[in-house]
Amino acid sequence: MHIYAVLAIAPVLPFAVVWLAVYIYKKEKKLATKRAMDVTTALLIGVVAVLFNEVFGSTFGIYLLLLVFLLGFGLLGNLQQRAKGKVDLRRTVRAVWRLGFMGLSAAYVLLMAIGITKNLW
Q: What sections of the sequence does the record tag as coiled-coil (predicted)?
């Protein structure tokens, strides 16, 4: 549990470690970036949920993230259904997961700044 806490508090570290490991093994920057995003997203889910709970004094953080991910999956699945007539589940999940990385990264920075500011005052 302590390892997860350390990795979740500084998500740049696991991103860098995974990126380097994949790049050294496969020699592909694009693949290394994708894999690092995938691993870091899992860590960001936990830390953003906790930060949300701490900043807003609630217990709704993880449920909000689950709701956003499910809504994103539904919207992208609907978009695929309308465009191609079928839903590629693997592609949709991957797209939602990677978009989640972008959103969670922004939320992490914002909530961390708010949390630090709130605790200073």
A: none
Residuewise pLDDT in 10s, the chain (121 residues)? 567 777 767 888 888 999 999 999 999 999 999 999 999 999 899 899 999 999 999 999 999 999 999 999 999 999 999 999 999 999 999 999 999 999 999 999 999 999 889 888 7
CB 47 within 8 A of CB 9: yes
* Token pair in block for residue 6: 């350390």
Decide: 87 and 80 in contact? Cβ < 8 Å.
yes
